[in-house]
Amino acid sequence: MEIDATALKSKGFFQQVQRDKFSLRLCMSGGTINTDYLKKAIEIADTYGGRQIHFTTRQQIEIPYITAENVDAVQKLLSDANIRTFIGGPRVRTVVACLGAAVCKFGQIDTNDIVKEIHDKYFGLELPAKLKIAITGCKNNCAKVEANDIGIRGVDHGYLMYFGGCFGRETRVGKPFLPVLKEKDTVLKVIEHTVSFFVTKAVKGERLGKLIDRLGIDTFKKAIEVAG
């Protein structure tokens, strides 16, 4: 059968080195899922995959060795369980987070609360280039927030935000252009202004850090400080 790998990729199925097989990536918010979700992933891996599950570096479940002929059956299982697949390309990617103050004795902020709000509002939003967001609860920085376009770190009495980082073919350390923010709602407004700035100012394929370089830190700070 003829395989449209591009179309399948848009549905969360990524072609493997074995061209007749695909690796399915499931959408997760902040790396936390319930057991019913995990059971469904196991069912898919057992029935249609290679009885393997991989946890990616960005806290997603990946199920390899799914054949193209089984994609429709897998999609029905996902739909019935209300599980979304990962969306790649020039979009807001899955938000990464540690467990934060709800679990970790070092946590300064409730990462579970803020990651859900960010993920629900922005995941999959089409942009000029991909945008990665990470949230970490304390100075231990388990989520490595400076390696993301937008990073949020819990500190004493608030949130410290980083902008313009990336890690991959190019490496760039995000910078904190704002003072410590005291309220979660202010952080959410800053993200809203940052995304708006990115949508309106970036050219195709231009990551946030390069956009900041091109237009200048002062221009960027002026755009996002409105919310602060």
Strand percentage: 15-25%
If you compute it from the alpha carbons, what radius of gyration comes out, rounded to the nearest whole angstrom? Answer: 19 Å
Which strand order spans the largest sheet, edge to edge or round the barrel?
1-2-4-3
- Give the overall pLDDT as a whole number: 93
Number of structural domains: 2
The CATH superfamily name of the largest domain is Sulfite Reductase Hemoprotein, domain 1
List the helices and strands and how they pair.
Layout: H1 5-9, E1 13-15, E2 21-26, H2 35-48, E3 54-55, E4 61-67, H3 71-80, E5 96-97, H4 111-122, E6 133-136, E7 150-155, E8 158-163, H5 184-201, H6 208-215, H7 217-224
Parallel strand pairs: 5-6, 6-7
Antiparallel strand pairs: 1-2, 2-4, 3-4, 7-8
Can you walk me through this structure?
- This protein has 228 residues and is α/β, with parallel strands linked by helices.
- It has two domains: 5-80, 2-Layer Sandwich (Alpha-Beta Plaits); 96-227, Sulfite Reductase Hemoprotein, domain 1, CATH 3.30.413.
- The chain is 33% helix and 16% strand.
- A four-stranded antiparallel β-sheet has the order 1-2-4-3. Strands 5-6-7-8 form a four-stranded mixed β-sheet, with helices on one face.
